[in-house]
Request: fold
Amino acid sequence: MRLSLLLTSIFFIVSCASHFRDQDSQLGKIEEYKELIKVEALPPTENSSVSTTATDTSASAANDKTSEQIKKTSSDKNKVDTKKKNKESAKDQKAKSTSADVKTEIAKIPERRKPTYEDSEGFVGRRPLVDPFVPGEKVIFSVQYLGVTAGQLGLKVENFVQVNSKKSYKFSGFIKSSDYYNMIFKVDNSAEAYVDYESLLPYSEELHVKDSKERREARTIFNHDTQTATYWHKSQNTDDQIDEQKATWKTAEYTQGAVTILFYIRNFSLVPGKKLRFSIANRGKNVPMEMEVLKREELVTKLGKFKTLKIRGRVKNEGKLQQTGDSYFWVSDDSRKTVLQFEFHLKIGKLFGKLESLQR
Reply:
């Protein structure tokens, strides 16, 4: 069985171990992708102090003295004229001041966050007022399927990086089958995603698949200027056959990726009753996703009790990955909105993610 976009919000593919000739290093060589995406460590922040130059008070005082008021030597008639001119000047100045105030107030009106179909509460432009991501955060789930512990799934916020010289988030995750499930089929998949710090839009996603049926390396690049995405993949099956694919397609404005979406929703102000809509670009398709915050709920886990928000997600997808029911996520009811539990309804059974460990 395979979970790809069905785990759109979680981002991995669980496929059904045979013996493979070791060609992983060759599969990972997608040269075109490497030319377009340059990832580097973020250099240490330099504390630059702002130096201010003191005002030369003596020079200022001297200038003040030279600009003393001129003595009144005008006749009575000239005095009247002067008062009249001053009165007219005051009116003009008041009118200009009023106009300037109106312009200032207009400038203060914040621009509507784009895209307009997304919620703008809690944002200044594209940036959230409170950043929910702290490098080093790591959440591990015990994945259960058909009543059996199938393995573990992990989500992590990595250290900041530079992507094409711009500060970026790096998110990663993995899914690995348990020893028991390895006797049926073995899964050892991982993924990384890079997201621009300012716009919260994804640069790229990388998927590394090792399972019983195939070895696969996949890459996706998002070009938000042209509203396109490009997907590459190289795979090797049990017969050592190599398959290569590439697809470029038009995406929706401000699209997210299959990996980034679960992190992206954490930027929003979440309260019961709120509904959110997104567009996800994945493997040549644009998939609409809807989420609704259902209620506040106390979640009991092996690590203790947590105050959470329960969110229902719906993905409109087709084919063997078609969603047959709702999916649910429980996120911490705080500024971090960390995912603490999930549940997916599949064609056959349900997939549960129970909190195993938490570091944040």
Summary: The longest strand covers residues 285-301. The chain has six helices and 19 strands.
